[in-house]
Design goal:
heterodimer, A: 366 residues, alpha/beta, FAD/NAD(P)-binding domain, 2 domains, seven-stranded mixed β-sheet, five-stranded parallel β-sheet, 21 strands, 28% helix, B: 101 residues, mainly beta, Ubiquitin-like (UB roll), five-stranded mixed β-sheet, 7 strands, 7% helix, 28% strand
Chain lengths: 366, 101
């Protein structure tokens, strides 16, 4: 049985920030990451971030991991990092089970845990949606930006949120044709600055449109698209055909919440947060004492918010297990203010209406 | 289908590696995943669904959805989207659920 003071599950933006925050408070931190590299999905985000300087605005996502690891390295005597390590179970007696490289199975007994497992791309239901060539937009981003491989020649992007818009732009940077971007909603969901950039490059953005079906034998060959009415019903006679070999599904993400559910944390379905999320207090502690959660697993947002949530949860988790720093209140208030500022726009309002449903006020949950 | 020129990124390819896909020799590069190497070589169909035997490609590319499971070096259910390519790997389309060794 491996002992750890604070176990952080997930080495993405939220997990790394939780580690920095907790280690700088004096806690011994063990970070478990299932991939071989740290940084989570920052590894493929070639675009510059928004937000303010504190969340690395104007820095490309791909460069943020390096900045965070440099920061974490300052506290290296307090930090142990295990990559290629998947946490596969969390049990009632506090034992956590882990699998290293699919060969070495072992147990960990931490005093507290921060779950920062992130999120996962949703799928969209239409006939033949399982054909090869139909990929998550994030998957295509990984293929292109990490491995330098084109997903195909002609792409239909489904979803005009920020990921759909950004990945469309990145496809064009990689020399791949984007024939159109669809969204079932009557309005473009992503930032208009991204949408304008794409329109200027000649790609139509078809709002109130959806995929009627995909056509292909062994892989995608064509997509049939149609309009939807204000109740999202397909409108007969509005079909259009696109010759495409790739369809990117960018209809949002949903929290990866399996470990929290397994541990018995009280969960709630909150549409504004994109799925089942844990109830928590202001300190990001769940209904199970000493089990904290941060980042997309507590509700899907941008990486900027995930990082600040990570800092906050790491700070509070460290304090809970005996590493209360002199500047605790000051740091906590700073993180709270940063989150408020990130959530000040219309999207933030939507997120806040979701958060209201899961936060139990006060320091103590139970 | 590899990206030749990119305005932001530079792809430093690793050493060229040889592996086999269903018995045929394929080339990839050190540092990339099995699924990325196969896709670059034009292979989109990685497996078949259990009951209807429909073609399966990758979907999430982050090791989460199990759409890319293949048999690698005789071992079933390998997540090829997050498993690094190695010289001489024997990669095969998996039939059925596979057997854990």
């Amino acid at each position: 049985m491996k002992q750890a003071e604070l176990l952080i599950i997930g080495g993405g933006p939220a997990g790394l920030c939780a580690a920095i925050s907790a280690a700088s408070s004096g806690a011994s931190v063990l970070v478990a990451e299932r991939n071989k590299n740290l940084g989570g999905q920052l590894v493929k985000q070639t675009h510059m971030f928004f937000g303010s300087e504190k969340q690395y605005a104007s820095t490309r996502g791909i460069d943020i991991t390096g900045i965070l690891l440099h920061e974490l390295n300052k506290y290296k005597e307090n930090v142990e990092i295990m990559t290629d390590t998947t946490i596969v179970g969390m049990f009632e007696d506090g034992v956590v089970t882990a699998l290293h490289k699919e060969d070495n199975y072992f147990k960990i007994k931490p005093n507290a845990v921060v779950v920062a497992t992130g999120a996962f791309e949703k799928a969209l239901a239409f006939p033949n949606n399982d054909l090869p060539g139909i990929y998550g937009a994030g998957a295509v981003q990984t293929l292109m930006n990490v491995y330098g491989v084109k997903p195909g020649n002609k792409v239909l992007m489904v979803g005009a949120g920020n990921i759909g818009l950004i990945v469309s732009y990145q496809l064009m940077q990689a020399g791949v044709q984007v024939v159109a971007i669809l969204d079932a909603a009557p309005k473009i969901g992503g930032y208009l600055v991204h949408a304008s950039k794409i329109r200027r490059m000649g790609v139509p953005i078809l709002t109130s449109h959806t995929v009627k079906k995909a056509i292909g034998k062994e892989f995608l060959e064509k997509a049939i698209v149609c309009q939807v009415d204000d109740k999202f019903n397909q409108v007969e006679g509005t079909e259009m055909e696109f010759d495409v070999d790739v369809m990117c599904i960018s209809v949002g993400l949903t929290p990866l919440n399996e470990l929290l559910s397994m541990r018995g944390c009280q969960m709630k379905y909150v549409p504004q947060l994109s799925g089942m999320v844990p109830l928590r207090n202001d300190n990001y502690e769940t209904s199970i004492e000493n089990v904290f959660a941060a980042g997309d697993t507590t509700g899907v947002e941008e990486a900027s918010a995930a990082m600040v949530e990570g800092y906050l949860a790491g700070l509070c988790a460290a304090a809970k297990i005996g590493h209360m720093t002199d500047d605790f209140e000051e740091r906590k208030n700073d993180y709270v203010k940063q989150l408020e500022s990130l959530r000040s726009g219309p999207v933030g309002k939507h997120i806040l209406s979701g958060i209201e449903q899961i936060v139990i006020k006060g320091e103590q949950y139970v | 289908m590899r990206i030749e020129q990119h305005p932001i990124l530079q792809f430093q390819k690793g050493k060229k590696l040889k592996f086999t896909f269903n018995g045929e020799e394929v080339e990839g590069f050190d540092g990339e995943t099995i699924a990325a190497a196969l896709h670059a070589a034009g292979v989109k169909v990685l497996g078949r669904s259990l009951f209807l035997h429909r073609p399966r490609g990758f979907y999430c590319a982050i090791g989460n959805c199990s759409s890319c499971l293949m048999t690698v070096n005789g071992r079933a259910n390998v997540k090829t989207c997050v498993t690094d390519l190695e010289e001489g790997m024997v990669v095969e389309t998996q039939e059925g659920k596979g057997v854990i060794i």
